[in-house]
């Protein structure tokens, strides 16, 4: 028998952060990586892209060359302890611990074995130029309001606990990412559309912020 309707809404869904890997040419999804636990902190820094430094032209003092260079750092936790308590339903965790989750994250910064072997074949064949291997377009998702293309710049793993087969069962992953703007990708790239949508969403959010008043500074007007 279904529970009676009490009139109270259901508990809100807790959204997860994560990464989406897209084909850099077609934009199709290759993999979705959902972080097991949302990080407690998200460190962001913005490096302003001004047209001139000290001693530059006065007429250029307020001009920008483009969007700021934004970097993001976070620490994510991965833990298979709960899964190991129910081995019948989590055979992969029992066999490999959190190796699969770590591998999925690590492969963001690896070329594929196929790409390496292809470059080897080109080298043996005497190719004059070997084009650097292209990685997937990585998209960082942190809520519906923050979806940005990124390049992973820092990656470190601290494995903290192991099972009897020395498979890691608990780890912390530190990620450093640089947001890729239209200056990095060009306006025709799929990632630029994501960046421009993110910038537009930021402008909408800023418009919702209440405007201040000079009285808050103890002023009636600027000098």
Automatic annotation (TrEMBL):
UniProt-recorded name of the protein: Uncharacterized protein
Domain of life: Bacteria
Organism field: Dokdonella fugitiva
